[in-house]
Predict the 3D structure of the following.
Amino acid sequence: MPDRAPTPVDRALPTDEARHLMTLVRDIARREIAPAAAEEEAAGRFPRALFTLLSQAGLLGLPYASAHGGGDQPYEVYLQVLEEFASARLTVGLGVSVHTLAAYALAAYGTEEQRAVHLPEMLGGGLLGAYCLSEPSSGSDAASLRTRAVRDGDAWVIGGTKAWITHGGIADFYTVMARTGGEGPRGITAFLVPGDAEGLTAAPPERKMGLKGSPTAQIHLDGVRIPDTRRLGEEGQGFAIALAALDSGRLGIAACAVGLAQAALDEAVAYALRRRQFGRPIADFQGLRFLLADMATRIESGRALYLAAARLRDAGRPFARQAAMAKLHCTDAAMQVAVDAVQVLGGYGYTADFPVERYLREAKVLQIVEGTNQIQRMVIARHLLGPETR
């Protein structure tokens, strides 16, 4: 059997505009992202010039309003764009998702004046964003964060440390959750902090198992002073803003996971068709055919799940439970598909000469970011059963 290029995913897109957009996205993924992915990930290089290109092409603000520089695309289209990018290189898909997450608080809760001033450059002006909720001592228990903002006349002075920040140290703006009141979720407020603010510094990037091209770092805020015009939403509304952002962000992670899994499946299928043992392609062996069939089924079910949640969001209906389900299922599926892809390639799959070993290392982090999969199970269970009794 001959080797063959992977067949593009057959997507049910809602409009001709979305179909043209997908053609552009696939062309960028094929020409600009995929060729350098392995080399740049191995070297730990972040493709900042590529993100400038994506911004210029209007691809960093797809789900936001065109009045402020966005693309006016429904979430079901935006997420499929993320999937395509992640399939070419997870650093890019995840980076677009995090940038979109960082812009959410301003787009959804900012005043009209704030949106007019900041959103056009955030969405189409070449800027890159980061989202700052987690801290060294508050990850899953985000409501216990300690970073504090103190009112000083018509300004705020922010002090504290944020942890696990994607784009930490290279972002142009940070959406920061800080405590302005008492303990608990109602004492938290959201702020838009410029990346060059005096007193804002980044620690050296974390040394990670995978996703090495995407910088993750602690952010230190040492007396960072910003005007009240950069407060997003009302005082004490920050935690609600953070959770609303994460509902949408989890769909982004789900889409990225499906993209990564699709890349792993494509590599496994291509290898199975060209690798010969016992006088015939290993694709002829039933055990391997069944393994590939299970991989494909996990991917298709994950894609259907995240798109169903996205359509609820686009219709203005509650989708938090479905977003948690999508994040849980898709990232667990990506991990299993990556493991199975390594198995299909055998010893070669365990080497850096083939991309599946990188996919395996990268898949693991998707089960952790933006709420571990244990947290997703808690969210789903609460929708089914109500809050836990104490």
